[in-house]
Amino acid sequence: MSAGEPLLQMTLRVEQDIFLVRQRGREVAAAVGLEHQDQVRLATALSEVARDLLRTVGGADVAFHVVHGRDGRPALRVDLTPASPLPDGRYEPQSGAVARLVDTLGVTSEEGDTVVRMSRRVPAAAQALTEARLAELRAELGHSAPGSALDELATQNEQLIAALDEVRSQRDELAVLNAELEETNRGVMALYTQLSEELEETNRGVVALYAELDEKSAQLRTASESKSRFLANVSHELRAPVTAIIGLGRLLTDSASDPLTPEQSEQVELIRASAADLLSLVNALLDLAKAESGRIEPEWADVDLRAVFGQLRGTLRALTNRSAVELVVEEPPAAAVLRSDEVLLSQVLRNLLHNALKFTERGEVRMTAQRDDERWRLSVSDTGVGIRPELHERIFEEFYQVPGASRVGGTGLGLPYARRLVTLLGGTLELTSEPGRGSTFTVVLPASGA
Ligand code: ADP
Asked: What pLDDT does 256 receive?
């Protein structure tokens, strides 16, 4: 820190000089741009040190400088050169708090002179302290006349009052802030309570809903179980008499029996045909009831798709002999083997092929097997009437038949049964169809079995 010509110099020898030093110190601090509070701090520290030095060494020479620190920032520095040597060359302020009022306070020795030195940095926002500005300040400070001790006392009083005011307003501000904080807290608490009440309410609703759902699904389960039981019992009971009717019909028309009139044999034929229809319905019901009650257990084994396809090709070819529909059962790829139940799988595919042939007047019915990743896709596609999109799920319901479809016979139980079986085999039964162009039913099975 280099210091040129001081901004102001003064001598401290008598009690009144303390006021003077304080007053002028504040003036210089204001002139170089220290903030109001820092001006008061510096002036206070200065008057304290001045009092100490007057008492211990009979006074001092006081010089004010502007110096530039290592970071280039200016600071106001006050050097107090004691009138006689300091005891032990040391200085300790009477009040320990003094050092905190300034940035630095201490004793330094310069060219044999011992100096008590304090400094306070000028804020960056202050007007730049160029050489020209310093010269200006020197002139101004040289001219300004120092006031009396009384003036200084009055100024000190004013400063005290201002400081008190500031403290009071800060306290008021704090009180306002506190009140606001309390208000906010209350708001947050109210919101929290409201939210947790709402949450509780919702929870109660959800719990009630679940209880209701549980109850409903238990009811549904019971209803479905009793339906299956009923179907199984009724169809079982019906099978025997229906079979008896068919047998009796056969007996009546047998060549060994008494001949019937043409009308009689026509009626007996009608009875036999109706009984046969009834038997297939009863059988279908029995199958479905069995599948639904979980009484069908797949027998897992390695199933060779080529064999299954070959057999179906053989048995169904007869159905297409005289129609305008070609049945194409494509050869599955080599090593088309999957874990499944051959009887159930054949039943499903036969059912799909039957339907396809039933609902196709011309064109072709084609069955293919394709493997993608870990799945087999076994598809039966036809060029028949197709199914409207809104009915794609309904046709899997029991007894549902697309209006008009019953003309070609059937019970409406084939597809729900097929889907049951595919589910038992660990797969899904999918449908894509376009009315008027045809349908594709696809059995998707895991290659490794269920
Ligand atoms: P159904 O004994 O009547 O064939 P399904 O359960 O097998 O009973 O089929 C239900 C209904 O789905 C059929 O009545 C028919 O309306 C429709 N359906 C099934 N397969 C086909 C198909 N390949 N093409 C067009 N419609 C079909």
From this structure: 82
